[in-house]
Amino acid sequence: MKQFLTALFAIFSFLSSSGSAEVVGKKQSNVLIIPIREQIAAPQLHILRRGLKAAIEREASTVILDMETPGGELAKTFEMLKAIEKFPGKVITYVNSEAISAGALISAGTDEIYFSPTAIIGAAAPVSSGGQDIDETMKQKVVSYLKARVRSISDGKGYRGQVISAMIDAEYELKIGDEIIKPKGELLTLTASEAMRKFGEPAENLLGAGIHSQIEGLMDEKFGKGNYHAIYQSPTWSESIAQYITSLSPLLLAAGLLLLFIEFKTPGFGLFGISGGVLLGILFFGHHAAGLSGHEAALCFFLGLFLVLLDIFLLPGFFLLAIPGALLMLGSLLWGMSDIWPKQTLSWDLDFLIKPLNNLVLGILGAIGLFAALLRFMPKGALWGGMVLDSAVGGETTISSSARHAPALIGATGKAVTALFPSGQIEIDGERYDARLQLGTADLGSEVKVIAVGEFELSVELLPLT
Questions:
Q1: Has residue 18 been placed in a domain?
Q2: What's the pLDDT at 285?
Q3: Range(s) of the domain holding residue 271
């Protein structure tokens, strides 16, 4: 009886599970759809990169580019093609309405090209940024380069290399067998139905992999209805302004570092420090919006800044914390401007670091140049007076170097000629000295007493009011 019940249970389990085993056991494929709209420029590059990185993080097997573009910048097109090459899964183009010029080149770099019934693709000859023809010699060079690139990315993909070459070069004759598809003297542009024409033996589609009125039909064909999970990427508002932030990275970095330097040279914490922090925050935010970094780089930067401030106010003159803090700040700036992909094995070579190093060097040189301009053109103004701690009652700063060799000054009393927060300047017997309060702050005109002589400044304490 026991054996009978066991066998009966096994038969029942088999019958109850056999009809649904295929559906239940089959894992849904994650498919991420990235919209490529308008002119190909920095925002479209940022959208594509963010989408590809999200697809890697979500372990999506396929990315579909929902293409509708009249073309755009050639440099950004090449960057988009490089980004597509980094994706480990399959990338498919769905030409929603048009993939002209740069759009055709991007489509050529994907695994398959699908079309809506009314879509067109082609006319990829290089032109100037204003749309005019370029010099004939230069055009020949660019066309030759483009055709070589197309051959490299179209290898093993049927007639694709020939078709895209006919879209790039008006003098290229596209001929398959005895049929001339495009004669010399014009650029090739294909409709969806023309892209699906078959040629050769065995018959092979000219360019397209299929026609679907909607992108959902494409996914149903590829994965089976209900066997995929579609993730539609929506462009964020930050991506529309990311191109401006990215292009201004050296200027933002220079201005931010300059403002922080000014803040360190002026008493207290105020407008300069806040403004510098805001500019560097915008720098980090801009690269994050562009898909270049996360928050870790910003955290390292502010950790370095904290160490520098700690050294300035608690351990002046020793640089025990300022040096590693400064290295952390510089390293985080490089990190924040580096192009790091999910699950990527980092290669710390010159090619990987050249762009962030270039921005960092330009930023530092820009800060130095702006500071030199302040030295040259604002020696007497209110801003410069606060930076170099000019006397509130006028007169030039004549900081005495005798403080380094004047132990007799210990116990001497003087008057603060600038506010001490906690650093500033004091006057003793008509001589001015850099000084630092051991505790607290002091207003202009406060009486102080020298308690120690340092290498670069006097240590003072505030005298009680009488």
A1: no
A2: 62
A3: 241-377
What is the pTM (predicted TM-score) of this model? 0.52
CATH number, domain of 222, equals 3.90.226.10
Note whether 415 and 441 are same-domain residues.
yes
- Do 393 and 367 have their domain in common? no
**Is the residue at 84 inside a domain?**
yes
Interacting residues of 197 by C-beta distance below 8 A, sequence separation 6+: 205, 206
Residues 69 and 46 in one domain: yes
Query: How far apart, in whole angstroms, are the C-alpha atoms of residue 243 and residue 40?
Result: 12
Residues 342 and 353: their CA atoms lie apart, in Å, by 17
pLDDT at residue 451, as a whole number? 86
Are 421 and 363 within one domain? no
Total number of domains in the chain:
3
Residues 6+ apart with CB under 8 A from 358: none
Q: pLDDT band at residue 133, thresholds of 50, 70 and 90?
A: low
Pair of tokens at residue 369: 């140049």
47's enclosing H/E stretch is helix 42-57
Confidence at residue 19, expressed as pLDDT on a 0 to 100 scale: 35
| pLDDT attached to residue 314 | 65
Residue 4 lies in a domain: no
Give the Cα separation of 453 and 233 in Å (integer): 64
The Cα–Cα gap between 46 and 240 comes to 9
Long-range contacts of 163-168 (CB under 8 A, 24+ apart): 163/188, 163/190, 163/206, 163/207, 164/104, 164/105, 164/108, 164/124, 167/104, 167/121, 167/122, 167/123, 167/124, 167/125, 168/124, 168/125, 168/126, 168/143
Instruction: Give the per-residue pLDDT at 419.
Output: 82
Going by the DSSP 8-state scheme, the letter that residue 348 receives in this structure is: -
The predicted pLDDT at position 96 comes to 92
> pLDDT band at 342, cuts 50/70/90?
low
- Distances from the Cα of 224 to the Cα of 95, 156, 300, angstroms: 21, 26, 47
